[in-house]
Amino acid sequence: MRKLLVGIMVAAMTLFVGAAHAYTVEDVDNSFLPYRDSKPSHPNYTPGMVINQDNVEGLKDILDPAMYDHVARGWIELQTQETGSLELHPNYIKTTRDAVNNPPVLTDEGLVENFVSGRAFPFEPDLNDPRAGEKMAWNYQYGYNWGDNAAICPFFWKYRDMRSAKIERQIRWCFHFLNWMHRVNQDPVPEFAENPAKLFRSVYAIAFEPFDLRNTQLLIHRYKNDLKRDDAWLYLGFQRRVRRLATGQITDAFLGTDVMIEDFEGYNNRVTDYNWKFLGNTQTIMPFYHHNDMELATDLPKEQDGYQYIDFHGYGGCFPKGNYELRKAYILEATPKDPNHPISKRVIHVDAQTYTLPRQAVFDKKGELWKSFHICQAYPDTHHPDNKGTGVSIDDCFFQIDVQRQHCTTGQFKGLLDPALNPPSLFTVQGLRKRAR
Predict the structure, then answer these.
(1) Phi-psi category of 261—alpha, beta or left, where left has phi over 0 and alpha has psi -120 to 50?
(2) Cα dihedral 39, 319, 144, 284 sign
(3) Burial status of residue 195 (CB atoms within 10 A of its CB: 0-12, 13-18, 19 or more)
(4) Alpha helix (H) residue ranges in 75-124
(5) What is the pLDDT of residues 99-153, one digit of tens each?
(6) Which residues, in sequence order, are CB contacts of 164 under 8 Å at separation 6+?
């Protein structure tokens, strides 16, 4: 009898896990079009209003805790707008729909198998599913953030002291991204034939200013096998040599900023390095806007093609002058598995439609709020003309605030989805050495 009961329990658990992996066409439509029938609402909220110190208490439940803190302190006022639908590229949605009858599988090791491209788990996360957070993390990892490849060039980082509003340092970068696998739109699809290392994604960055950081370069390779550690190399111009980064260095302050390499794009590491817990559905004020309708910066040079950057204001000049929307979101708690990691957890508000990570709070080892992390999302059709029709939620600016020492690092982007800017040869160690000469 005992063996029979154990067998029934194992079968039931297997059935539940298997069912959690399966999805329907309706699930796909609901995932990518959450606003087709209705939009989020709140009794104290009207689109177009300004959220400030005077009214923030009545809106506390639609702000993530870090952003509530910023508004309550009077650090920033939030200009809101009507919630819009940022629909991802039709090819990304189609390839997700194509897998309905043969869906991806999340293995016991935490890897995704039987996956070609698209959103791996396009169904509403379930609080009763102990692996719901893990599946959400994979949806982000295989998301359409920057599409199949993109370049942010120029990319201005500014170090700011919040108390004095002084800009201590500015770096001018170019960042490049390339997906080797799980591609949906730009040839070759779905992957590069020549990829002997079985890379999934690469990131390359090079600094041009200031002079002491000129030619500093960073290269990151992430592998299809998520159990294999990333490889990363750094070329420091003043040392004139390439060195491999140790694992722990991706969680150090990068070049004296408030940002870790692990923070890039919201989360830049292996899924299997963290434990992921889904905390529930919500609706949250998120930084989504139409770039060309915003008040743009005049302290940075206008690009030759007429492009201008998002401006910053608020306490210390650390907050972007971009609008906000009330959007459907998921709350995801991420806890590092490494006991020596400098943080205790990330609490991330995931945008349900795009699976980008616009808002998150980072907590120190004592469990106290340490950093507020913010990535602006711009609609592609009202951004740079070259991005029209790309179906990508465009990362347009960021801030990382160290709330404990009142210091921030901000970023202003010119991001383009142009494969000509991201040849595979750019993402090689040999290329680092060549460009360093």
Answers:
(1) alpha
(2) negative
(3) middle
(4) 90-98
(5) 999 999 999 999 999 999 999 999 999 999 999 999 999 999 999 989 999 999 9
(6) 316
With tokens 């806007």, the residue in question is 289
The answer to whether residue 197 sits within a structural domain is: no
Q: Under a CB-based contact definition with an 8 Å cutoff, are residues 354 and 143 in contact?
A: yes
Residue in the structure block whose two tokens are 């209705």: 38
What DSSP element (H or E) covers 429?
helix 429-436
C-alpha separations of 209 from 5, 155, 312, 431 in Å? 67, 11, 20, 20
Give the helix ranges, DSSP H, for 99-231: 132-141
51-80 per-position pLDDT tens digit = 999 999 999 999 999 999 999 999 999 999
Contacts of 53 (CB under 8 A, 6+ apart): 71, 72, 73, 74
| 329: in domain | yes
Determine, yes or no, domain membership for 324: yes
Find residue 171's DSSP bridge partners: 157
Cα 318 → chain centroid: 19
Q: Which amino acid is at 23?
A: Y
Q: Which tokens is 230 given?
A: 């990333």
The residue among 285, 300, 330 whose CA lies nearest residue 123 is 330
Whole-angstrom distance between the N-terminal and C-terminal Cα of the chain? 74
Range of the domain at 306: 1-172+220-226+249-420
DSSP string, 380-411: GGGS-GGGTT----EEEEEEEEETTTTEEEEE
Pairing relationship of beta strands 288-289 and 217-223 according to DSSP bridges: unpaired
Element (H, E) at 14: helix 2-21
When divided into structural domains, the chain yields a total of 1
